[in-house]
Amino acid sequence: EHGAVKYKTLPPKDFHKWAVICEHIIKHYCYGWADGFNMDIEYWEIWNEPDLDIYQDYKRTWTGTSDEFFDLYETAAKHLKEKFPHLKNCYYSYTSSTLSIHSFDPLYPVQ
User: Fold this and answer.
1) Do the beta carbons of residue 81 and residue 107 sit within 8 Å?
2) Each residue's pLDDT tens digit, 76-96
3) Which of 16, 51, 73, 101 is deepest in the core (most CB within 10 A)?
């Protein structure tokens, strides 16, 4: 993601499909789905550092707009909370702690 060639930094074309992919990853790692595992993971990140290079032409992790990112986040977070209400947090991380909302996300309050 940080090299000259970028992979998978464009916004997904279908945000709901992205949410279902996230659901399947959680099922795989926590519920043994698709020959997976049974790990007790309560915290999940929907996207990593979408704000990296936000004011530059070359963006390493998210090339969409802020509005697109928050639409993706809202779609995925609501879907995952519906499927896995016991999850304590499902968030994204920012590169700057002053911008981070993961600790007071209204969709996933820390318990």
Assistant:
1) yes
2) 989 999 999 888 767 677 776
3) 73
Instruction: Name the token pair of 76.
Output: 């995925």
Distances (CA, A) of 9 to 13, 30, 51, 63, 108: 12, 26, 12, 6, 25
Q: What is the pTM of this model?
A: 0.78
Q: Residue 44: name the closest of 68, 25, 20, 16 by CA.
A: 25
Q: How far is CA 1 from the centre of its chain?
A: 15
**Beta carbons within 8 Å of 38's beta carbon, 6+ residues apart:** 30, 31, 32
Cβ atoms 105, 91 nearer than 8 A: yes
CB atoms inside a 10 Å sphere around CB 97: 8
Tokens of 109: 């309050």
Residues 6+ apart with CB under 8 A from 86: 42
Question: How much is the pLDDT for 45?
Answer: 87
